[in-house]
Design a protein that fits this description.
142 residues; mainly alpha; two-stranded antiparallel ribbon; two-stranded antiparallel sheet; endoplasmic reticulum; transport; protein transport; Hsp70_NEF-Inhibitors; SIL1 factor
């Protein structure tokens, strides 16, 4: 919870509660400062003349940061939509290749075939060596 600036804050180690107390010299100051504090509602001042220059600078910096973040997000969405226009999903590509009688395989599928070829008892020694060389290529990619 927000506490006024200059408050004394402590952590009670027995109860685990955080406690805040206004300093004693705060109560003896002029009544106008007390009135100004009472007009604050959370983080917003009701009386605009009570803004300090530091508060205004912080608010302006936060506004600039939020604007930069919003610009960054909107540019990211724009880039994603441009990429989506350039590329098609893999399912669509597979369908188009099937229409052309071309089978598209993933690296995983190829590696499984190479391992089964190597383990096959009907494969010759040359086929097994070739399967190992091809498998080495795919393993290095992974």
């Amino acid at each position: 919870q927000a506490v006024p600036a200059g408050s004394h804050v402590r952590l009670n180690l027995q109860t685990g509660d955080r406690e805040a107390k206004l300093p004693d010299h705060e109560h003896s100051k002029s009544e106008t400062r007390g009135k100004r504090r009472r007009k604050r509602l959370g983080k917003v001042d009701v009386d605009s003349s009570s803004f300090t220059s530091q508060e205004l600078k912080k608010a302006l910096a936060k506004m600039k940061e939020i604007e930069k973040a919003e610009r960054k997000v909107s540019s990211l969405f724009l880039k994603q939509s441009m990429v989506r226009k350039k590329f098609r999903p893999i399912e669509q590509l597979k369908e188009e290749f099937e229409k052309l009688n071309v089978k598209m395989e993933t690296d995983y599928e190829i590696m499984v075939k190479l391992i089964s070829k190597y383990n096959s008892s009907t494969s010759s020694l040359d086929e097994k060596v070739a399967a190992l060389y091809d498998l080495e290529y795919y393993v290095h990619q992974v």
